[in-house]
From TrEMBL:
Regions annotated as coiled coil: none
InterPro entries recorded: Allergen_Asp_f_4
Protein name: Uncharacterized protein
GO cellular component: extracellular region
Pfam annotation, one family: Allergen_Asp_f_4
Annotated spans, Disordered: 50-71, 236-265
Phylogenetic lineage: Bacteria, Pseudomonadati, Myxococcota, Myxococcia, Myxococcales
Length: 265
């Protein structure tokens, strides 16, 4: 996400050119806002897996009653569109109604879904997870992180407990362990963030990373693993500044399923 409006940054145009998502490492979600043109910081906010060579650039999210990502999701949100020229300003699917692009499911249902993330609390205290769409309820590309303007999904994990969450295609999300157990404004500040995109509409790619770019802060142990490959990112190799090299920080996944495992420790 970004700093203020720029909570989360990613990679420079040169890094995008030099490290396309053909290698399985490259990514970094971003809290990007859309004020008046500010080319420098805007270009620093593109996720590498979101900005990989486009397939069907500018294609709006498909509308169907049953998603290819699995059953039970809401209809794709109106206006979802991949912005090939400014991918940081793309409007991803948030479901209709808002947040219906993600659903808490039972472990036995996992095989029905293309995109999942299994959250596990490996601490000795309850952890409340706040999980938000990067696109806000009013359609702002990076407003979802502002809990005073958009409503996140929340669930609490007791020590040792896990929860599987399924995601629809073209979902771009972020999450953290709420520092005070709530989803009120500011609950995501000061914590390590996890970020992921599932089946980007413009590129087909998925990806994930961890971020500690201010004001996300620099506390909270989190690991995110792709269950298919074992590739893991943690707070130790999280994004710390917008100028970080995405190599080793972003993990890009080619078109197809992506099942993540996020552990709080």
């Amino acid at each position: 996400m970004s700093i203020s409006l720029l909570n989360r940054s990613c990679c420079s145009p040169s890094s995008l050119r030099n490290a396309p998502l053909n290698a399985a490492q490259a990514q970094a979600p971003a809290g990007k806002s859309a004020p008046a043109p500010q080319p420098l910081w805007q270009k620093l906010m593109a996720d590498t897996f979101e900005a990989s060579p486009p397939r069907g650039a500018g294609r709006a999210a498909a509308s169907s009653s049953v998603s290819e990502a699995g059953p039970g999701f809401g209809a794709p949100s109106a206006g979802a569109n991949y912005n090939v020229n400014e991918p940081w300003l793309s409007v991803n699917n948030t479901g209709s109604p808002y947040n219906s692009n993600m659903q808490l499911i039972e472990p036995g249902q996992k095989g029905q879904f293309k995109f999942t993330n299994t959250f596990t609390n490996d601490t000795n205290a309850p952890q409340t997870i706040t999980l938000w769409n990067k696109v806000g309820e009013k359609g702002g590309p990076n407003d979802g992180q502002n809990f005073d303007k958009s409503t996140p999904k929340t669930f609490t994990l007791q020590p040792g407990q896990s929860q599987v969450v399924a995601f629809d295609s073209n979902s771009s999300v972020a999450w953290c362990a709420s520092k005070d157990g709530s989803a009120k404004p500011g609950a995501n500040s000061g914590q390590t963030w996890g970020e992921a995109t599932f089946g980007n509409a413009g590129t087909g790619w998925s990806g994930y990373n961890t971020s500690q770019i201010s004001p996300a802060g620099h506390s909270g142990n989190m690991s995110i693993t792709n269950e298919a490959t074992g590739k893991t990112v943690t707070q130790a190799n999280a994004w710390q500044t917008p100028q970080d090299d995405p190599a080793g920080k972003d993990v890009g996944v080619p078109a197809g399923p992506m099942n993540l495992r996020t552990v709080l420790s």
